Amino acid sequence: FLKMESTPGEDAVNTVEITTKIWNIPKTELIKQQQCLRRLTTILKEVLLWVKCYQMVSHTVKNLL
């Protein structure tokens, strides 16, 4: 088997460069999309935290009744 070393930041840059070459997508557009995904990820983390809190409270109330 082949071994390949990976550097997360470098791999992301390579992926962006390959993607822009294959689909002729402007790099600025990919950067905008990446920023949107980061904001969405933050929002989803908050939603998941609320869901977890709701489940805990719901479970606690159910056990008290």
Structural account:
By secondary structure, this protein is mainly α. The protein has helices spanning 8-23, 27-64. The chain starts with 7 loop residues before the first helix and ends with a helix. The relative contact order is 0.06.
Radius of gyration: 20 Å
Question: What's the overall average pLDDT, rounded?
Answer: 76
Counting DSSP E segments of at least 2 residues, the number of strands comes to 0
- Give the low-confidence spans: none
Largest sheet descriptor: none
Strand content: under 5%
| Element-level helix/strand string | HH
In which range does the helix fraction lie? over 70%
Return the structural class. Answer: mainly alpha
Number of helices: 2
Shape: rod-shaped
Kindly, what is the distance between the CA atoms of the first and last residues, rounded to a whole number of angstroms? 58 Å
List keywords for this structure.
2 helices; 65 residues; mainly alpha
List the helices and strands and how they pair.
Blueprint: H1 8-23, H2 27-64
What would a concise description of this structure say?
The protein is mainly alpha-helical and 65 residues long. Helix content is 83%, strand content 0%.
